Amino acid sequence: MASPRTENATSIYDFTVKDAAGNDVNLSTYRGKVLLIVNVASKCGMTNSNYAELNQLYEKYKDQGLEILAFPCNQFGEEEPGSNDQIVEFVCTRFKSEFPVFGKTEVNGNNSAPLYKFLKSAKWGILGDDIQWNFAKFLVDRNGQVVDRYYPTTSPLSLEYDIKKLLAVA
C-alpha cells in the first residue's frame, strides 16, 4: 500500500495508497493542499454527524485548498463491513460527499497501513499510540507535514480555526 520510500518517509507525499477502485494514488497529488485525513465507518454512532460536518468543511474550504481524505476502516466494532464499492455508494448516495474515499485500510496492528504508521508516529508518537476508534482525524499542512491529531469524538467543525490558519499560509 505504500511506495518503497516508506521507511525514510519525511512527509505524507512519500506514500502511495489505493483508492476505492484499487488504483494506486500517490499522495504527492495533494502537494500544496491542506489535508484532513480521517478513518471513517458507515455504521458507527458518529457516522451521521461526522460526514455531515466533513461535508460542510469541504464545501466551505475546498476552493481554498482543503482536501479531505477518507479511509474506511473495519477495525472498530466491525462498523465498516461493506466492500469498497458499497462504502463509496453509501457515502456518495446518503451523504453526497465529494471528497475522495480510499480503499478499506487498517490503521492499527501488524497490518496497519504505512501511511497510518507515519501519521501516528508524527503526532502523539508514543509506542503503541493506536487510533482509538472511527473518525480519528489528522491535519496535514501544505508541505505534507502532520500538524495535529484529533480524537474520534472531536467534531470536524471544531477544527475550522486550525484549518483556516493553515489555509491562510498559502
General description of the model:
The protein is an alpha+beta fold and 170 residues long. It is 25% helix and 17% strand. The chain has 4 helices and 6 strands, in the order E-E-E-H-E-H-H-E-E-H. The protein has helices at residues 47-61, 84-94, 114-122, 160-167, and strands at 16-18, 24-26, 34-40, 66-72, 137-140, 146-150. A 4-stranded mixed β-sheet has the order 4-3-5-6, sandwiched between helices. Strand 3, helix 1 (47-61) and strand 4 form a beta-alpha-beta unit.
Short summary:
This protein has helices at residues 47-61, 84-94, 114-122, 160-167, and strands at residues 16-18, 24-26, 34-40, 66-72, 137-140, 146-150. It is of the alpha+beta class. The chain is globular and about 35 Å long.
pLDDT averaged residue by residue: 90
Count of DSSP-assigned helices? 4
Distance between the termini: 30 Å
Shape: globular
Largest sheet, if any? 4 strands, mixed
Strand percentage = 15-25%
What value does the Rg take, in angstroms? 15 Å
Order of helices and strands: EEEHEHHEEH
- Kindly state the number of beta strands: 6
The order of strands across the largest sheet is 4-3-5-6
In the predicted model, the low-confidence regions spanning at least 5 consecutive residues are: 1-5
Task: State the share of residues found in helices, binned by percent.
Answer: 25-40%
- Helix/strand-derived class? alpha+beta
